[in-house]
Design brief:
This protein has 306 residues and is α/β, with parallel strands linked by helices. The chain is 34% helix and 27% strand.
Length: 306
């Protein structure tokens, strides 16, 4: 089995009395996409910052490519690509110039860099925008340029912190396609995201964090099978509360959020039959998904940003 590209053991970070990351351990193998999901303030971004040597840990160990972080972070960063939550593109440079200037930070020879840039623009579907500045690009284009820039050093490991936040569905799907291509090339990806469909589509394995602690780990489908009933019936409308009172015993678990009642069941047919004649509610029957898992493990209450 190949050695992990990134290994984190017992990682801990405190800010005063608050524990941002609590004894966290995980590793990422070559060609693997590891997703990290959790509410705001769960410790996702803090973990990435520590892996990049930007924030010092209070405990635990980090190794990237066998090198200790932060002691050897400069050497490790030569093989790491990063896309942060917010674009840090230079607004005064064109797409080509953003790639060129960033590539110089890695000491890439000029001839190698110039030969690499057209392929990066093509990968990001930005060839026609090579001379455009970031302010002339859509949000999706800027995120793709950020991804292309993260690839300028041909990294083996990518750290992507919510790379599709703020994108429309078309832009998200194109980003997913590009990330899938990178995985097929054997690159490893650490991905934080609030989009559960994104996590299920891209990730081989998931970590669920809450209050800085890992509360679940496994494959997307494995976690769903382990923690959830197979079926969900959503009921909403004026009669939803009455349905919950009348048929709550038919489900393994019932939750209410706003005007919607969620019935979690292993056999939905009896409930669906009972509701088929009601006209005061709307009914949606679907399989359990990662969003259900997320809400069960971390709760439905709104979290403030950390």
């Amino acid at each position: 089995m190949p050695a992990p590209l990134l290994r984190i053991e017992g990682l801990t970070k405190r800010y005063g009395a608050s524990v941002a990351v609590d004894a966290l351990s995980f590793s990422i193998a070559p060609g693997e996409c590891l997703g990290v999901i959790g509410p705001n303030g769960a410790g996702k971004t803090t973990t990435i910052r520590m892996a990049l040597g930007l924030t010092g840990p209070d405990g635990g160990a980090i190794e990237a490519f066998g090198l200790p972080i932060p002691a050897r972070v400069r050497d490790a960063k030569r093989r790491i690509g990063v896309v942060t939550q917010f674009d840090s593109l230079d607004p005064d440079f064109t797409c080509t110039e953003n790639l060129r200037v960033y590539g110089r930070y890695f000491g890439i020879p000029a001839a190698t860099l110039e030969a690499r840039i057209p392929g990066l623009l093509e990968f990001a579907a930005l060839t026609a925008k090579a001379s455009a500045k970031p302010g002339e690009l859509s949000g999706g284009m800027r995120r793709r340029l950020s991804l292309a820039r993260a690839l300028v050093n041909d990294p083996d490991l990518l750290l992507l912190d919510e790379p599709t936040t703020g994108l429309d569905p078309q832009a998200r799907h194109l980003m997913w396609e590009r990330l899938g291509n990178l995985l097929q090339q054997g690159k490893a990806i650490l991905l934080t995201t609030h989009f559960m469909d994104e996590a299920e589509r891209l990730c081989d394995r998931l970590l669920v964090l809450d209050h800085g602690r890992k509360i679940a780990e496994g494959t997307p489908r494995g976690l769903i099978g382990e923690h959830l009933e197979s079926d969900v019936v959503e009921v909403y409308g004026d009669g939803a509360a009455a349905v919950a009172r009348a048929h709550g015993d038919a489900a393994d678990r019932v939750e209410t959020s706003g005007d919607t009642v969620f019935f979690y069941l292993r056999d939905a047919k009896p409930l669906l039959d009972a509701l088929s004649s009601r006209h005061d509610v709307r009914v949606l029957h679907r399989p359990a998904n990662l969003e259900d898992l997320f809400l069960k493990l971390t709760g439905r209450q709104i979290r403030e940003d950390a």
